[in-house]
TrEMBL record:
<dbReference type="GO" id="GO:0006955">
    <property type="term" value="P:immune response"/>
</dbReference>
<comment type="similarity">
    <text>Belongs to the IFI44 family.</text>
</comment>
<dbReference type="InterPro" id="IPR027417">
    <property type="entry name" value="P-loop_NTPase"/>
</dbReference>
<feature type="domain" description="TLDc">
    <location>
        <begin position="1"/>
        <end position="159"/>
    </location>
</feature>
<dbReference type="Pfam" id="PF07534">
    <property type="entry name" value="TLD"/>
</dbReference>
<protein>
    <recommendedName>
        <fullName>TLDc domain-containing protein</fullName>
    </recommendedName>
</protein>
<dbReference type="InterPro" id="IPR006571">
    <property type="entry name" value="TLDc_dom"/>
</dbReference>
Length: 240
């Protein structure tokens, strides 16, 4: 029987969009393969870039690592750029990210990400506990305790990363730009009395999904599926 992830389609797509044109392959699931660092390493060692995802009742927290998992008890490697993320389990499935340089060490008891001498993020499988440093909780906008009980964790192989050099920097710049645009959109308010009608210009290359997006939005407001804009694929635009 196939082992499936607890991530929703929307959550998985959000991660793939953040990482670029990649795919996620589930390597390890604690409820299936056993809740220990040793059993996790049996499935995940020498697999390249990975994402570790920890599940709680109302949110998800995870870490992306560009290199291989280190072997157990290996001395700290040189810190490398990595990122952490959280999903708030609500209707909008909001994702928050934090970019830090960290090094990973794995022992019999725990999986720990270090920044300088501080343990930023730590998974203790024998007790189903995750510990998060104040800095990380602040960056991820999590108003939570530093020591939390989790309900499960998974590790994914990230496939499709073609350029290791500068990869995190590219993601960082793209995320900062995206977050800045979203913040401006959320904060925007037209001057009262000066705007009688709002019109939205939707821009994008041919085949990027402008018509599909328009139809989806209109269907929501109409309460049924509509296809006012013609959808298809061609070398030139087919929407009039």
């Amino acid at each position: 029987m196939a082992v499936t992830t607890r991530l929703t389609w929307k959550e998985e797509r959000s991660l793939q969009n953040l990482l670029g044109n990649v795919s996620l392959g589930l390597l390890y699931k604690s409820s299936v393969h056993g809740n220990s660092t040793e059993k996790m390493l049996d499935k995940c060692v020498h697999q390249g870039p990975t994402i570790t995802v920890i599940y709680f009742r109302n949110y998800i927290v995870g870490a992306f690592m560009l290199g291989h998992f280190p072997v157990m008890h290996q001395d700290f490697r040189k810190p490398s750029a990595s990122f952490y993320f959280s999903f708030q389990k609500n209707e909008s499935t909001k994702m928050t990210t934090a970019f830090l340089s960290t090094a990973l060490k794995i022992t019999d008891e725990r999986l720990t990400f270090y920044s300088s001498d501080d343990a930023i993020f730590c998974v203790i499988p024998s007790k189903s506990i995750v510990c998060m440093h104040t800095l990380l909780r602040k960056k991820l906008e999590l108003n939570l305790s530093s020591r939390l009980i989790y309900s499960g964790w998974e590790v994914f192989r990230v496939e499709g990363i073609k350029d290791d050099a500068g990869y995190i920097r590219k993601i960082t710049r793209a995320t900062q730009h995206r977050n800045g645009l979203l913040a401006e959109l959320r904060a925007y308010k037209p001057c009262a009395g000066l705007v009688s009608e709002i019109r939205i210009l939707l821009l994008g290359p041919v085949g990027s999904g402008k018509s599909s997006f328009f139809n989806s939005v209109k269907s929501v407001f109409q309460g049924h599926v509509t296809r006012q804009a013609t959808v298809g694929s061609d070398d030139t635009s087919i929407t009039e």
